[in-house]
Amino acid sequence: MKILLYISFLGTNYCGYQAQKNGNTVQQTLCAAAERVFGFPCDITGCSRTDSGVHANMFCAAVTERGREDINTSIPMSKIPLAFASVLPPDISVTSAREADNAFHPRYDVKYKEYEYKIYNRAVPSPFWADRSWHYPRRIDDGALGRMKDAARHFVGTHDFASYMASGSDVKDTVRTVCRADVCREGDFVIFRVSADGFLYNMVRILTGTLVAVAEGKISPDDIDKITAARDRSLAGITVPAKGLYLNYVDYGDKYPS
Hints:
Layout: E1 2-9, H1 26-38, E2 42-46, E3 55-65, H2 80-85, E4 92-100, E5 112-120, E6 134-135, H3 142-153, E7 157-160, E8 175-186, E9 189-196, H4 203-215, H5 224-230, E10 245-251
Parallel strand pairs: 3-10, 5-6
Antiparallel strand pairs: 1-3, 1-4, 2-3, 5-9, 5-10, 7-8, 8-9
Helix pairs in contact: 3-4
């Protein structure tokens, strides 16, 4: 068996999820913690490669013994989150654990993922949200919010999203299926949520920047289809900062319900 972990983390102090030679990452921190929990070196494969500063309300990862396709442990699944809590820093938490088949892959078996982007929309910034949202001081009123909602609907469906991919990315297949895209206001926050079967590099941050350009009147909601069809990064909006982005939900279908 493999162990499927459900994890949440604040990405402020990490250079993304994926292990790297220079810089502390979530994956390296989890691997070090897993060795202490299970008593032997482990490999932890994540569901996504989040960027530096990106957070996760739900992140999924599979644990195996290093060099093997499975793991053997006498620790009950219900006790594993507590075991990790004793060795992880306070900005990473294993919220639950369950058994998974040896063939399970946390990245390739995903049905869809949902991201959300938090815009802190007040004139004065909040110190409590400085690293967990993007401060945008210009008021997004009801009219601007309505335009953002209209524009977001144009993202839904199967499209080539090359216009919303970071310049210089070497990904060849840029077609993705977005099943939901919506914008709402929750108190001082304007939140963009988008669900898809996969995402390109910086895609959610560029989609968000494009919606902000719509709010500012620089882009019309009706222009979104033309921007998408053009496959031209220069036509879309800015890449908003990573600190407002959260991996919100990961779905594996009926076999591993969240």
